[in-house]
Structure formats: structure tokens, C-alpha cells
């Protein structure tokens, strides 16, 4: 859809609308009409409309949204108005990151469905809530990833890149006190591979060492 009310001097207000599929044209028109009504009611006549069609809200990168953010970064936009949070972002983290960027560029954000304006007391409270939700969202993702890795390892799956260095040969040569150059030549590997194997050796040795006996008194030097 073409941008509306585009004039020579760049508008200071941006309207954003989005639908997930091209079959939702009526939904896009509904959003645009609601945004225009909001502008009429609030005396806003100088604005530019950014529309994303057939774009999922889960995608942080969208053609019209990217253009909108570019103008915001150029400090040409004073206010961004959306129909609803869900039309702008589906992820709490994405929404919070965008709001923080708007704030850093002095741009106000308005959602007409939720009746939220970031420069209002409710908007300030919303920032705090979103930050907490975003932290929780990241932790839940991390927990799911860790649980998935643990489950895969329990089933015998190898996680990450398969080691290609000859570990046993490298360890045997390290125990012979050979230099990295000598080991690399014999084992046909890089110095980085030798260093990585040495770190693993030291870690394994540390893990196997018995913990200190709390009952055994320590000797003090006088």
C-alpha cells in the first residue's frame, strides 16, 4: 500500500499498520481507518503511513518497519502511533527494545487499542512491566534450550561440532613435553587444537582431584 499524506517536509508523526497475510486486506483497512480517526480527534494532520502486508509479527525485520526505524534514527519522527501492540511486535523483548530506541531518540509511542502513551504515568509503568516480562521471556527461552540439550545428550546425541583433532595422540605428545610446533607437525593439527586439548586435560584433572578434607588440619608455617 502506498504511503498516505506524504509531503515535501517530512511529517513528524508516523502511523504503523501490519497484517500477516495478503488475505487480510480488510484488517489492514480497519487499522488504517482507526489510526486516521485518532489523528482527526487529536488534531494531527501531518503524518506518514507505514504498512507491512503479508508480514508476521514475530519477524523483527519487515520492509515498512525497517523504513520507519530508519526515519526514527534520523530524529525526524516525534511520535509513532500503532493500532495495537500486537500489530507492532509479538515478542515482549522486541517491543521493549523498540520502545527503548524510541525513548533514546525522543520519540513518543502510542497504542490506541491499549490506550497507552509512553510519556504518560501509565506508559512509564508499562516500561517497568515490559522489562520484567522481557527478562522472564529470555530466561524461559534459556531454560528450554538447556533442557533440550540435556535431553539430547541423555539420548546419546552429540551437541555441537564433532571434534576432528586426534585427542589421544595430542595428549600423549603433551605428556612427553613436546613443543606445540613439534606436536602440530606429528599430529597434523593447529596450535589452537593443541591448546584446546590441553585445556580439556587440565579441566578433567581438576574435576578428578579429590576435594580438601575439612577434618584434616592445615599446616601453618611460622
Strands, helices and their partners?
Blueprint: E1 13-18, H1 25-41, E2 47-52, H2 63-73, E3 79-82, H3 85-88, H4 92-104, E4 108-111, E5 116-117, H5 121-154, H6 167-175, H7 180-187, H8 191-208
Parallel strand pairs: 1-2, 1-3, 3-4
Antiparallel strand pairs: 4-5
Helix pairs in contact: 4-5, 6-7, 6-8
Provide an overview of this structure.
The chain is an alpha/beta fold. The chain folds into 3 domains: 105 residues, Rossmann fold (3-Layer(aba) Sandwich); 29 residues; 39 residues, no CATH class. 51% of the residues lie in helices and 10% in strands. The chain contains 8 helices and 5 strands; from the N terminus they run βαβαβααββαααα. It has a 5-stranded mixed sheet with strand order 2-1-3-4-5, with helices on both faces.
> What percent of the residues sit in helical stretches (DSSP H or I)?
40-55%
Q: How many alpha or pi helices?
A: 8
Strand % is 5-15%
Give the SSE order as H and E letters. Answer: EHEHEHHEEHHHH
What is the terminal separation in angstroms? 85 Å
Biggest sheet: strand arrangement: 2-1-3-4-5
Average predicted local confidence, pLDDT: 82
CATH topology title of the largest domain? Rossmann fold
